[in-house]
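Re-run requested by the PI after the first attempt was lost when the workstation crashed. Everything re-entered from the original request form. Ligand of interest: pyridoxal-5'-phosphate.
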Amino acid sequence: MKEKQLLMIPGPTPVPPGVLKSMATPMINHRGPEYARLQREILRKLRLVFQTGHEIILFPASGTGGMEATITNLLSPGDHVLSVSIGVFGDRFARIAEVFGAKVERLSSEWGQPADVDALQERLARPDAADIKAVLVTHNETSTGVVNDMEAIAGVIREHGALLLVDAISGLIAMDLPMDRLGLDAVVAGSQKAFMIPPGLTFVALSPRALGASKEARMPRYYWDFGMMLKSMEKDQTPYTPAVSLYYALDEALSLIEAEGLPAIFARHALLAEAFRKAMEALGLELFAQEGYRSNSVTAIRIPEGLDVKAFRKLLREKYNVVTGGGQQRLESEIFRIGHLGFVGPFDIISTVAAIEMALSEMGGPAPLGQGVRAAEEIIMRKPL
Ligand SMILES: Cc1ncc(COP(=O)(O)O)c(C=O)c1O
């Protein structure tokens, strides 16, 4: 028998059975009334999860498509853009802006650290910062397991007046990101993360200021054009054929999210992330992200000295059926990553910790059997009935 697999990567994440089933709904006319109702209902629920009263645009694409759409709709070639990068995905956001002709200045942190808010404030206070048109920030850096202090970052950028464009692809829904309250101008998300649906949809929420900027911006775009999209959305349609089956999945998943409620979802992610972190520490493993900025959706763990990470992850996958994420780029042989976002519960965490203990023990690593599981259980038991 093919054994049950635990998918513990930071996206794509497991999809609840009811959501999977919804994707088998027969096709409908995407220019007809049933579709219009579906799109309206999706947008109502999306505004709840983005915590915004403003426009939200959906494209059939992975998250990177949403990042590119944000850059090309809000900026013009030659615009001065400040990239606050703390890892692989922050660098990607900067690179997209560069490819489309923005003048990109980088304010990068060492990997594992959050954005340096004081350095950002200092940079934005200099006279030559006056022409900075936009600041690019990653809410949750999936490559390092670091979550930025968005409240502090947003405060500093609002004072300056630049547009604040946020990649929240792996953070939204798992951790609180109140778009309107923080004054974020664009928030990009992706379906395969805490939305609990398969890959294939990206979302961009826009402030009125961002919408205004999109009317002036001159970077080339056609398929990604926000103006065309919004005009069509006024008629409850999209200009091009929407990913109807993913919309069914989204409608269903958003209903689950609405029923659980954002505060409960944030609390669940916080509890499970803490249980996992404590378990790793109980095993003597070192967490990669700086304390105080550890993500509740993904944890990066340093590989103990002398342990072959490829062989370790292979053992976890092939013997224990637990699929983990590897390190990206220069972190390839330094860390492994566990995603604990979306459709995740306490026993996903406990099973993963148990598998890690066994694999480490087999490979001669520092793994007192049961110690990590015990630490996780102690945290999980705090959950009220
Ligand atoms: C923070 C972040 N930004 C961007 C991306 C890219 O998204 P996609 O692979 O959906 O294009 C990811 C994907 O993991 C991510 O975690």
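Saved to the shared folder this time. The mean pLDDT is 97.
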